């Protein structure tokens, strides 16, 4: 087991939804947390990133930084999602190698598996087919990050690992209805409709696609568990096994928010992947499982939204 106690740990992306959750999960360890705010360190700047890593020499890097967004944001700025995430992956992973970081965890995403993958999706499915077009730019960058970890692990003997989470949600998510992921978008749209007394709300696509959701605090505990127990070059899926259709999710969120109006689906907006359920048997074997059900997670997230957004 890799002991996190006594380690100097840098969570790249510390102000994001995932970074903050990882920091909460690290609270129980006696470790030193390094911090680098965006004004001090721009991770798309290679020289700055290399210098910062060399100067601070973390023992552990948890790479949660990234340009993220829902289907709308991804589909409308493939260039930006590819460029920024590619720069971040290269700079942080190669910089960590140069600074002799002992252990690094990089996060991929279930959307980087081929669009037509057999379900549930095994880790071996990576790069076996064409990608979902709506998030191709993001996926290409993330595939490079996952492969860099694999190659540095095998070629240089670095303990660099990557994990492939399913769709995430939770506190500090982006709740902008246009650029956000589906859960915060639905919460915001239905909350606004309820508050404004609107009789109907319009959502995207057909409502038929299926998604697997994991609360970010479960992911964060999973990241810590992987740092402690996983050393393989091959990526590892980390999902909830809890799959729901977008229509089913809409009903759950309407109930949590208390929205009782009509729901329309605008099929001019894309559905994206029809299904991307992860095969979680590998992570099961190393003893991690989620503890927050989708129902409870949605309630907790809406409570957070009410006090913070
Ligand atoms: O979370 P999401 O935006 O992204 O969910 P993906 C999109 C699904 O929810 C589609 C439906 O089937 C949409 O048609 N949907 C319905 C909505 N109403 C809305 C709405 O108001 N807003 C949004 N956003 N969706 C993302 C990738 O794919 O998955 C990213 O684009 C990332 O790269 C993420 O990896 C995990 O699940 O389709």
Overview features:
309 residues; alpha/beta; Rossmann fold; six-stranded parallel β-sheet; three-stranded mixed β-sheet; 10 helices; 11 strands; 42% helix; binds guanosine-5'-diphosphate-beta-L-fucopyranose
Short description:
Helices cover 42% and strands 16% of the residues.
Describe it.
The structure is a single chain. The protein is of the alpha/beta class. The protein has a domain at 8-172 and 213-242 and 275-291: NAD(P)-binding Rossmann-like Domain (Rossmann fold). Helices cover 42% and strands 16% of the residues. It has helices spanning 17-26, 46-56, 71-76, 78-98, 136-156, 182-196, 216-229, 246-257, 281-285, 294-308, and strands at residues 8-12, 32-34, 60-63, 103-107, 159-165, 167-169, 200-204, 210-215, 236-238, 243-245, 262-266. The protein has a 6-stranded parallel β-sheet with strand order 2-1-3-4-5-9, sandwiched between helices. Helix 1 links the parallel strand 1 (8-12) and strand 2 (32-34). Helix 2 packs parallel to helix 4 (78-98). The mean pLDDT is 97. Bound molecules: guanosine-5'-diphosphate-beta-L-fucopyranose. Guanosine-5'-diphosphate-beta-L-fucopyranose (GFB) is lined by residues 70-72, 74, 109, 111, 134-135, 138, 167, 177, 180-182, 185-186, 189, 203-205, 209, 211, 246, 269-273.
């Amino acid at each position: 087991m890799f002991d996190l106690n006594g380690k100097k740990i840098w969570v790249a992306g510390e102000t994001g939804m995932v970074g903050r959750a990882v920091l909460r999960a690290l609270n129980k360890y006696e470790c030193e947390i390094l911090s680098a705010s965006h004004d001090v360190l721009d991770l798309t700047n290679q020289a700055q990133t290399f210098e910062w890593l060399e100067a601070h020499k973390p023992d552990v890097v948890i790479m949660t930084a990234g340009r993220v967004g829902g289907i709308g944001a991804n589909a409308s700025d493939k260039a930006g999602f590819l460029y920024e995430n590619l720069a971040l992956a290269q700079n942080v992973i190669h910089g960590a190698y140069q600074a002799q970081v002992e252990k690094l965890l990089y996060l991929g995403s279930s959307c980087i598996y081929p669009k037509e993958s057999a379900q549930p999706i095994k880790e071996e499915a990576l790069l076996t087919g064409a990608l979902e077009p709506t998030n191709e730019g993001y996926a290409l960058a993330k595939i490079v990050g996952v492969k860099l970890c694999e190659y540095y692990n095998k070629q240089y003997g670095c303990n660099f690992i990557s994990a492939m989470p399913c769709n995430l949600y939770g506190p500090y998510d982006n709740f902008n209805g246009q650029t956000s992921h589906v859960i915060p978008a639905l919460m915001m749209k239905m909350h606004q409709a309820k508050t404004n007394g609107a009789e109907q709300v319009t959502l995207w696509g057909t409502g038929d696609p299926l998604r697997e959701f994991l609360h970010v605090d479960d992911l964060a505990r999973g990241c810590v568990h992987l740092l402690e127990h996983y050393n393989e070059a091959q990526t590892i899926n980390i999902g909830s096994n809890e799959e729901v259709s977008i229509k089913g999710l809409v009903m759950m969120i309407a109930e949590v928010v208390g929205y009782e109006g009509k729901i329309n689906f605008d099929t001019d907006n894309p559905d994206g992947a029809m299904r991307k359920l992860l095969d979680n048997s590998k992570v099961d074997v190393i003893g991690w499982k989620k503890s927050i059900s989708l129902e409870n997670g949605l309630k907790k997230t809406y409570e957070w939204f009410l006090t913070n957004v």
